[in-house]
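Incident log, support desk, overnight shift.

02:14 A customer reports that sequence design results differ from what the structure should imply. Their input is reproduced verbatim below. On-call engineer (initials T.W.) acknowledged and began investigating.
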């Protein structure tokens, strides 16, 4: 069997497709079609999850791909984020069958009728939603962290400009979604206080800040704050280098975002702070509570950020929230008290 898998969103969405890709690999070859602007295809360099990777950056790429691969595949798989009109039309030309859990309204009727639509199921993990595209049933999927694991035949080398400590360190993601989504981001003053508390409690550990180029000013504030043993790699890493830094860290501390998913794929324990997103849909605390812990505020309007059944009792768009109470009401001392028992077990075992 030959399968096509489309990936359109960020690093996290790419990792959430891994369990499906692994199942497909059991009886066939899998080609990945990436139109993501976040370079998430780099996650799959130097591993054998995809047999081939096709980049779809321009309209001309779609035309060339259709000509080259027309009727090549048995089934194309598109999740909620990759099921755009353009991708669905391409998938219809590439494969005998197309499976998705989203149908855009502007899709031509003829093409719509040829698609196998698998309605999403409320209350299950996003990776299980993707697996349902394969099984087309209400079967309960028992996910474990090994399903998300990405192993590399050659680990990424860090560039000489990155000053990563030889001592044990924690990887820390201080900003999510390129610092553009306030409902996912914790105030930098809160991060300052939390790292200060952690630094005093766990003196043998360093901190390596990770993130994108437009988050460097936030990282600089923390480096210059006087907190001991803080190093920044923010804005200076490739996806491969980011993955290496997270993999070699003793514990990942961060937010709802791509680095959290990468940490799980590399077997690194995670402690994450959540705002408006549905942690039951995207998080890993229910998959392995021994390795993953979350901090969140239970409020009546949560979760407003979810592609399936969002809570719209207060706002229709999470970005329009007047106060972002779900994440800003989480104080550093409260988060530290939730982190400490988890960190004690993880860090003291190293």
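02:41 Re-run completed on a clean worker. Output:
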């Amino acid at each position: 069997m030959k399968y096509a898998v489309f990936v359109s969103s960020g690093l996290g969405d790419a990792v959430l497709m891994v369990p499906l890709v692994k199942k497909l690999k059991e009886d066939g070859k899998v080609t990945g079609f990436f139109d993501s602007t976040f370079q998430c295809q780099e996650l799959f360099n130097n591993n054998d999850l995809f047999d081939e990777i096709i980049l779809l950056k321009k309209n001309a790429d779609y035309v060339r791909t259709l000509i080259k691969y027309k009727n090549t595949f048995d089934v194309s798989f598109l999740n909620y984020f990759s099921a755009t009109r353009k991708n669905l039309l391409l998938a219809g030309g590439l494969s005998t069958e197309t499976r998705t859990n989203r149908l855009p309204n502007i899709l031509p009727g003829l093409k719509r009728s040829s698609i196998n639509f698998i309605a999403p199921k409320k209350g299950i993990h996003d990776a299980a939603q993707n697996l349902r595209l394969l099984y087309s049933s209400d079967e309960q999927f028992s996910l474990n962290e090994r399903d998300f694991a990405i192993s590399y035949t050659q680990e990424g080398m860090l560039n000489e400009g990155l000053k990563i400590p030889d001592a044990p360190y924690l990887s820390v993601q201080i900003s999510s979604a390129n610092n553009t989504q306030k409902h996912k981001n914790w105030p930098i003053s809160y991060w300052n206080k939390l790292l200060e508390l952690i630094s005093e409690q766990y003196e043998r550990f360093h901190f390596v800040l990770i993130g994108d180029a437009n988050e460097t000013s936030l990282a600089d504030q923390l480096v210059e704050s006087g907190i001991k043993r803080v190093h920044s790699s923010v804005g200076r890493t490739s996806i491969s280098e980011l993955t290496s830094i997270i993999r070699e860290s003793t514990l990942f501390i961060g937010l709802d975002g791509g680095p959290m998913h990468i940490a799980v794929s590399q077997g690194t324990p995670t402690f994450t702070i959540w705002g408006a997103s549905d942690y039951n849909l995207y998080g890993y605390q229910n998959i392995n509570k021994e390795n993953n812990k979350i901090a969140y505020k239970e409020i009546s309007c949560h979760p407003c950020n979810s592609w399936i059944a969002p809570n719209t009792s207060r706002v229709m768009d999470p970005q329009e929230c007047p106060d972002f109470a779900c994440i800003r009401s989480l104080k550093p001392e409260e988060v530290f008290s939730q982190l400490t028992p988890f960190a004690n077990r993880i860090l003291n075992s190293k």
